[in-house]
Design a protein that fits this description.
By secondary structure, the chain is an alpha+beta fold. The chain is globular and about 40 Å long. It is built from one helix and three strands; from the N terminus they run E-H-E-E. Helices cover about 15% and strands about 20% of the residues. The protein has a three-stranded mixed beta sheet.
């Protein structure tokens, strides 16, 4: 982060139940991608909001609460071609050839 003079804006985040190591890996991968795939000064904004199960958005009906935390990580990176949008949640599927990129290909699959 120091080498690239990256800026990470972090809003207060909720405490959530989950597997610590997986949550840490998810955040690490998302922030690392924001820094790696960026030709300008990297910037990432991490925020959260609460949505209601009645809001009409996707939710987990097995959850024990009517409210859900949505944690968003936005960056100013290169993004992806919209032609790949149907494949973004396919586990372990790369969007680039192995020799073009180093990564594990599962960042979005943790979501």
């Amino acid at each position: 982060m120091e080498d690239k003079k990256a800026v990470v804006n972090l809003d207060p985040l909720p405490v959530v139940k989950g597997i610590d190591i997986q949550l840490r890996q998810l955040f690490y991968n998302l922030i690392n991608n924001a820094l790696k795939f960026n030709s300008a000064q990297p910037a990432a904004n991490i925020s959260s909001r609460i949505i209601s199960a009645q809001s009409g958005t996707d939710f987990n009906p097995a959850a024990q609460s009517d409210n859900f935390h949505v944690i968003s990580i936005e960056d100013n990176g290169i993004g992806m071609d919209s032609g790949y949008s149907g494949r973004i949640f396919d586990m372990f599927q790369r969007l680039h050839q192995r020799d073009q990129d180093i990564g594990n290909g599962i960042v979005q699959a943790h979501c």
